[in-house]
């Protein structure tokens, strides 16, 4: 194989390579090996590939016609390592999800509506459904618009994402330990999965304010070790087994809001500090905030009468609406943007990983 049709897109605050499943090897091992060569993994700079040398820019979306009724397209997300030759399908990515609808229209997998298009997307990683609604003026994807999202310069067309069945995406239950609060390594935590397995812990338990900058947190090796120890134990409690090399669970340190939002967050994915927060990460943290007794509930400023929660993060805020009925999730929704960066043929580095 010399070249593979590929579209590079920004999806929300991430960037990834989008492929039609039919353009990639059917065998998952062959496919993953090819994708590592496409991204330039393993290499801290990914200099011989199209990866951006960070987990948020070392991502792949694979889109295909639906394998079962109930969806318009299927979307498999793969997280590729940067320094390590690993490919993981153990988590969703709600940021790349934003680009899936536009990509499916661009590739002719689905017909666009005359003004906007609504697609049901099966997130194969968790077998859950998302509905994406985005502008398609004149039957073509409109990327331009007036919607700003924190962490991305400028504005673009809004992409509405709605979720109905994301609880227990990777762990099988919203509260995978069976409790709303646990104590791990002496730290009170809430282990929760509403689209992303997350360990929510108070920043104060780590001697932090929770408002530190990304560079400061990233330079703190002792903190990194404590986060790893916490997530290893919490991951086992959540039924995820040995998560040493896994991309989940994430850890989010929470503190009272200070910019008019619901909560302040600093998130580790799983050990690198996130410049903002993932989509499902934010949905999951917002879900915890709404539960009596959960870590974060007592620190949060919740809007009287419900409504969207603004999750503050190092580069702004992400607003998510989560509707709970006790510990049953009714729905979640939020807005993202996406942009086509290039469409062409990617030429992977020739075979052999090392
Ligand atoms: O947590 C991560 O690895 C980062 C993500 C994943 C994501 O989007 C999500 O949580 O839905 C991101 O910011 O893209």
Report on this model:
Helix content is 16%, strand content 32%. The chain has helices spanning 28-39, 94-106, 214-218, 221-237, 279-289; strands spanning 4-11, 14-20, 59-64, 73-80, 87-88, 116-123, 128-135, 159-163, 182-184, 187-193, 197-202, 250-255, 263-268, 309-313, 316-325, 328-336, 338-346. A hairpin with a 2-residue loop joins strand 14 and strand 15. The protein is of the alpha+beta class and 354 residues long. Residues 13-14, 55-56, 92-95, 196, 250, 269, 278-281 line the site of (1E)-4-oxobut-1-ene-1,2,4-tricarboxylic acid. InterPro entries: OMA_tautomer-like, PrpF-like. Its EC number is 5.3.2.8.
Q: How do the strands and helices of this protein lay out in sequence?
A:
Layout: E1 4-11, E2 14-20, H1 28-39, E3 59-64, E4 73-80, E5 87-88, H2 94-106, E6 116-123, E7 128-135, E8 159-163, E9 182-184, E10 187-193, E11 197-202, H3 214-218, H4 221-237, E12 250-255, E13 263-268, H5 279-289, E14 309-313, E15 316-325, E16 328-336, E17 338-346
Parallel strand pairs: 2-3, 4-6, 11-12, 13-14
Antiparallel strand pairs: 1-2, 1-17, 3-4, 4-5, 6-7, 7-8, 8-16, 9-10, 10-11, 12-13, 14-15, 15-16
Entry keywords:
354 residues; alpha+beta; 17-stranded mixed sheet; 5 helices; binds (1E)-4-oxobut-1-ene-1,2,4-tricarboxylic acid; 4-oxalomesaconate tautomerase; isomerase; EC 5.3.2.8
- Helix content bin: 10-25%
Attached small molecules: (1E)-4-oxobut-1-ene-1,2,4-tricarboxylic acid
Q: Supply the number of helical segments.
A: 5
Distance between the termini: 19 Å
- Which shape, going by the Cα principal axes? globular
Which regions have little confidence, pLDDT < 50, spanning 5+ residues?
Answer: none
Protein name: 4-oxalomesaconate tautomerase
EC number: 5.3.2.8
Family: Belongs to the PrpF family.
Pfam family, one: PrpF
């Amino acid at each position: 194989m010399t070249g593979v049709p590929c579209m590079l897109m920004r999806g929300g605050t991430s960037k990834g390579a989008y492929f039609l499943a039919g353009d990639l090897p059917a065998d998952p091992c062959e496919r993953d090996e090819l994708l590592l060569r496409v991204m330039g993994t393993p290499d801290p700079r990914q200099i011989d590939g199209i990866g951006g040398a960070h987990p948020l820019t070392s991502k792949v979306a694979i889109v295909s016609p639906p394998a079962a009724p109930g969806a318009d397209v299927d979307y498999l997300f793969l997280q590729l390592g940067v320094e390590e030759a690993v490919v993981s399908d153990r988590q969703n990515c709600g940021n790349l999800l934003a680009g899936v609808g536009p990509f499916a229209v661009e590739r002719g997998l689905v017909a666009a509506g005359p003004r906007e298009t609504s697609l049901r997307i099966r997130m194969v990683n968790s077998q859950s459904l998302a509905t994406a609604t985005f502008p398609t003026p004149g039957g073509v994807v409109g990327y331009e618009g007036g919607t700003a999202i924190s962490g991305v310069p400028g504005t673009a067309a809004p992409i509405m994402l709605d979720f109905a069945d994301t609880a227990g995406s990777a762990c099988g239950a919203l509260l995978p330990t069976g409790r709303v609060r646990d104590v791990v390594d002496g730290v009170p935590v809430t282990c929760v999965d509403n689209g992303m397995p997350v360990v929510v812990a108070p920043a104060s338990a780590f001697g932090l304010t929770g408002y530190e900058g990304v560079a400061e947190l990233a330079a703190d090796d002792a903190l990194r070790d404590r986060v790893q120890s916490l997530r290893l134990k919490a991951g086992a409690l959540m039924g995820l087994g040995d998560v040493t090399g896994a991309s989940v669970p994430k850890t989010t340190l929470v503190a009272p809001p200070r910019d008019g939002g619901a909560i302040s967050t600093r998130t580790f994915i799983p050990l690198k500090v996130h410049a903002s927060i993932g989509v499902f990460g934010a949905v999951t943290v917002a879900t915890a905030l709404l539960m009596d007794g959960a870590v974060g509930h007592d620190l949060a400023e919740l809007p009287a009468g419900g409504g969207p929660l603004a999750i503050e993060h190092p580069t702004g805020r992400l607003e998510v609406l989560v509707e709970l009925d006790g510990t049953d999730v009714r729905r979640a929704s939020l807005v993202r943007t996406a942009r086509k960066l290039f469409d062409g043929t990617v030429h992977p580095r020739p075979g052999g990983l090392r």
